[in-house]
Amino acid sequence: MNNMILSALKAIDVATLSRADWIAVGMALKEEGYPCSIWDDWSRNDSRYHPGECEKKWQSFHGNANPVKGGTIVNLAKEHGWTAHAEDYALGWNDTIEYDGDGGFNGFDQTPWSPTEDLITYLETLFDEDDLVGYVTNDVWQDEEGKWKPSKGVYDRTSGELIRCLRKYKNDIGATVGDHKPQAGAWIRFNPLDGKGVKNENITRFRYALVESDTLSIAEQDAVYRKLELPIAALVHSGGKSLHAIVHIDADNYEEYRKRVDFLYDFMEKNGVSIDRQNRNPSRLSRMPGVTRNGNRQYLAATNLGRKSWVDWLDFVEGVSDELPDMVTLATYKDNPPELPDELISGILRRGHKMLISGSSKAGKSFLLMELCISIAEGKKWLGFDCKRGRVLYVNLEIDPASAINRFLKIYEALDWKMTHAENIIIWNLRGHAVPLDKLVPKLVRRVRDQQLDAIIIDPIYKVITGDENNASDMGAFCNQFDKICTDTGCSVIYCHHHSKGSQGMKKAIDRASGSGVFARDPDAQLDMIELELSDDIKNFVRDGCATGWRLESSLREFPNIKPVNFWFDYPIHRIDANDTLAESPVQGSFEAGRLKNAFSKTSKEADSEFRTAFDILNFDGYVTVQDLAEYLNVTDKTIYARIKKMKDDFRLEKGKVYLCENDTEID
Q1: Which strand (E) or helix (H) includes residue 455?
Q2: CATH class of 343-531
Q3: Alpha-carbon distance 120 to 130, whole Å?
């Protein structure tokens, strides 16, 4: 039946069919087990043919309870005047039906075959007229398993000489190349020789390589060679289980030849084609078209398929193997928009995205990152932002391992949190083992592949930086490594970087990170922490005078920028400024901070005297409001509260009003 279907298909003029009948033919071919390439080749005879359409439709054929079968093709052929012949049923039940890509099936091609024309075309395609050609016909022997093996054969005749002789004795190929053993077939070398031997050193031009696979069917080989657009000069049916593709290599020397062949074979195997690597030598023999082998033809199936040259094919390879995603139209998602990744840090960072934390050397960035690890592990707030519980890897590049672990324990203790989900924190101590990030990333990806992580924190990046920090191109390549981690692991990547030298107060948050602006503009979220200038009065609120005040600002790609967050770094943790004590404090290095610093030049005694004088001037009813004092002294209400707290023996505060203490009789 199979042979009948293919014979019937040849009789159908695709140009006369409706689209419904054309689709029915494709469905029938798939149902009967044929490859898409048969339908595609047959469809090319129609002006309505569009490259790639057959394959796209083919993938949509999934079968049903009443499948379209081969009888549909036979009936269509009969409507076109086709009549089945005995040879259409000639094959036995166990015979293999193989499509050679050019109309031949197991050597039983229905078209006339001219052995000498096959060999002439082969020689004209591969060789110049004066090239010496090597071939083997009757110089053969059998190994212990009974397989026929070729010897050196003939290697001193030119292509032009062989072609002239073949044309002279066009009905007797043996008169030119010698009679071959029908059980063995014949072989030919596809690169020209020097006439002195048949080894690699005797090859004069490294033009072609042999691609052969015994693991796929003939039909599958043909389909994949065409799909991968191999630059095939000649495609020869071996008379056995394979097609011999003679592929353009176009190398200048043997070394380049080996490199290109290795690249070719590797590419084929990456695309699912197992290649016989014994064929990688330029002096290798291939099957000669124009002879028979165990009753099957060794024939020339096609010439000049795919790309025209090696260089031209490399353009195709780059397009296939560039690992870039496909282009899609927006309409694809009109009714089915993609789901956004979960928010790992609410309103700031999604899973699989990148975040940079920048700050000065006194900001406690490592402590802040460790706090973030703990907040993600426990599913609690970090600087006031909700964190989704997950697993996190902390890559420690700077701190002694024992110190790093003890820091985590101290932070847990200072936060007063139980270590309920401490197993969600994985620590990779790499101090003394750091390598450039492009070398570290493959190792990292391999190690975390089965860890089911949600975030990877790298601290600090200066330990693994590559290139010039101030060069945008170098830093673009460096930051691409973070993208690779995100893509290959599905995790968020979080890292920190230091501020540039000098005052940062007059800069925007996004411009404070050291080096190229790529650092701040590459991540999906940038959080910048800058120290605040504290007045003497505010410092009086600080426990033991050790805590420092900070402000967190943002530059976000996925969310609106956050309202700046003020917080204290009170070793070993950062605490939110819940009482808004830092609300009016300017950042260090700003113009406002400069004015505040001038105010700091007053001694405590001078400040007390200034406060007493202001109270005396404003006191008409036995008290002065906090608001009036603040306006008069050009300070904030909080500064007034701080001053009253310090001068508690002299003044008292009741409901926003400042009174003299009862033991005071006058104001000096």
Answers
A1: strand 455-459
A2: alpha beta
A3: 14
